Structures are given as structure tokens and as C-alpha cells.
Amino acid sequence: MPRIKSRLRLWLGRGFTLIELLVVIAIIAILIGLLVPAVQKVREAAARMKCSNNLKQFGLACHSHHDVLGYFPYGGYSNPPGSWWTGNKGSWLIFSLPYLEQDNLYKLIPNLSQPNFDSIGAALNDTAKFGPWPGLFRDVRLPYGRCPSDDYDLNARVSNYVGSLGPQCATGGCGYDPFQKYCHPDKSGLGDWGYSDPNEWYNHGNTLDAKDLRGMFNRLGVKLNMASMSDGTSNTLLIGECLPFEHDHLAQNQWWDFNGGQSHCTTIIPINYKSNYHDQNGDRCNRPDVNYQNWSVSWGFKSRHTGGANFVFGDGSVHFVNQAIDHKTYQLLGCRNDGQPVTLP
Predict the structure, then answer these.
(1) Cis ω for the linkage preceding 134 (within 30 of 0)
(2) What is the pLDDT of residues 209-239, one digit of tens each?
(3) What's the rounded Cα separation, in Å, for the pair 87 and 84?
(4) Which residues pair with 124 in a beta bridge?
């Protein structure tokens, strides 16, 4: 018995050598190095799924609006049409509120049916009733409005989800417009893609006439229904993701406004094209190839997801579209009536 105790005492008194400690630390570091990327992938997969579900809710809201009123929400609306700054009634997100379990908020917006009345401005500025700026919307974080993959200011009153203009022109005013050829391919030598317009497609979707709009939304109140997607609802983009940090209109943080960026994305810009440069002097034409204020590069669909972005289609289905998609196929998915229906690869 004394011999056993002596051996135990000897073993208990023996410490780790420096080399043994270093080996253990190295093994732990390797395990952490293997674990962290796996955890990040799981987290991003969950965020992407949540983002997809958000889009699904907006797709359902748009369809519910169509079921009740016979048309999709206006991308932006003023009453009468054309009185954008004096009769502002809001973005498509405002008209979706009753179908997102936000009917009480919708009913608080004053005089939505009154012509020549700025309902949104009144809601923002009625400090006696709603408190200081931004009035009615001061504490509102739009349900389903943020993609969890986007780390942009989580307190910002903004939405990551934008109605599609389709392959509409969007010049930036800086002389750097590398993707304009895709909004009039017949005039750019790319061939007949089924769409053309003698008026260069009404830059930025600024039209009151549905025939001049290739996508499903614009900020000026074009009314479109299911029948307007003559290429098929499952072949037409409805809403997609965008990043406020890379899109100057979204960066205004005003999801409720007709000009707040919620109908300001064109498919002519490739998916996930970077426009993350912010000039310290506000010069929108400095580094125009990546400037978030240059609309010819910033008004595209973008996400923080690796390899593409989520979209909801006209039939309400949600799909992840790879950023490497053939660009012509992408334009035909964006255009609702080119006569060349294509399916998602």
C-alpha cells in the first residue's frame, strides 16, 4: 500500500511540459479553425432562409392585394398621378400594410384617398398626434423588412426588398453607363430580345403608362395585374433583394416614401455588382464604377449572400438566382412581356 501511494504522489506531482501545452493549444486552434467556418455557414444558411421567408410574405401580400383590388400594389403612388411631391401616398410597402397584419398602421395615414394631399408628409410631420420626426413611422420597423444577412444599421427605417423595374434604363449622370446596352439590345447590336422602345425606355421607369414599363413596379403609380405578365407569372421577377449601403435612394431610410428606393432596381445591372464607394465630399461621379450614388451601377439587385440573391416571382414562388446567370436570361426574367418566356436555370 505505501508503494502505491508513493507512485500516485509522484504522478500527481508531475506537470505538463511546455511542448505538451503547445501541442494542446495547437490542436484547440485547429479545431476552432475548423468549427468557425462551419458555424458561419450554418448561420448564413439560416439567414438566407429567413430572407427567403420575408420575400414569401411580401409575395403573399402582393397576391392578397391583387385578390382584393384586382391589381398589384402601386410601386409608388400620388393622387392625382403626376403630383408626386404634393400628393404623395407612399411606396408599394404602404399599400401592402393591410396584408402584412399592419392594417391599424395603414388606417392612421391621413387622407389617402384625398387628391392633392401629401398623406405621407402629413403622417411624418404631425408631431402633435404622432410625436417628432419621423412622425407616424418613428418607431416602425417594417415586418419582414430586413434581411438578417445585411449588417446595415439595424435601427434604420429601411427595407431590403425592392420591386423590379425589369430591364429598364437607369443612367447615372456621370457618363459611366456600362449596362445601358441591355435596356435597348436591338439598338446596341445584341439582337432582338423582344423588347424595344423609341423613347429609350423612360429612364428609371419614370412613366405613367404601363406600356412603357418592362417590369412590375415603378415609383410613379403604374397599375399592373396578373394579365400584364404575358410571359407567365412563373417567368417574371416581382421583388428582389438590395443593399441600402450600396443604393443611395434606399440609404434615405424611408421605406414608406414613393421615392424611397423601394421600386428602384433594374435588371440591366448584374446581380451583386458592387457599388459600395461613398465619397467623403458627396461627389457622386468620383469612382463612378462603384459609387453608390451613380444609378447606372447602384440600382441593381444585391445581397450579402454568397453567389446570388433571393427573388419572389410573379406566381409568389421564391427562388435564389445565381449571380452568374446568363445576362440575357436575366433580362427576359425581368421583362414581363417580351414574348420570350424563359425559366430559371
Answers:
(1) yes
(2) 999 999 999 999 899 999 999 999 999 999 9
(3) 6
(4) none
